[in-house]
Write a structure and sequence with these properties.
Layout: H1 2-8, H2 16-32, H3 34-45, H4 50-57, H5 82-89, H6 94-111
């Protein structure tokens, strides 16, 4: 179909038979690949020449002619705000946590003796 369209294009302005062939090819391409030809029609409305519009649309003919978008996503319940979740999961403020841990470390560090580590075994 594209070969016939391309062959008829140069003569479409001067030969009525070529113009009819061009229009029939475009009509058939709309049946076979409405996705690509929809883009072609939009480009033509925007003012592109037939050659430029078809050149831009040509890669679209390799895609699915009638793409389906599928079903809409399910509606999910809205989550509570992040701040509320943080308050529920972590009731303590960072100041309390750092203050408590800092005091425990200094107290434990002052009373605990350093642990001895065993010397590594050497094979001679």
């Amino acid at each position: 179909m594209s070969r016939a369209w391309g062959a008829a294009l140069p003569y479409a302005t001067s030969d009525p038979g070529a113009e009819r062939a061009l229009l029939r090819c475009e009509s058939r391409l709309r049946e076979l690949h409405p996705y690509a030809m929809n883009r072609y029609d939009r480009l033509r409305v925007e003012g592109h020449t037939p050659e430029a519009a078809m050149r831009e649309v040509a890669p679209l003919f390799a895609r699915e002619p009638r793409p389906r978008t599928g079903y809409p996503a399910p509606v999910r319940p809205q989550l509570p705000p992040a701040v509320k979740l943080a308050q529920e999961d972590f009731p303590h403020t960072i100041d309390k946590v750092v203050g408590t841990c800092g005091n425990a470390r200094t107290t434990a560090g002052a009373t605990a003796k350093p642990a001895r580590t065993a010397a590594p075994n050497r094979l001679s």
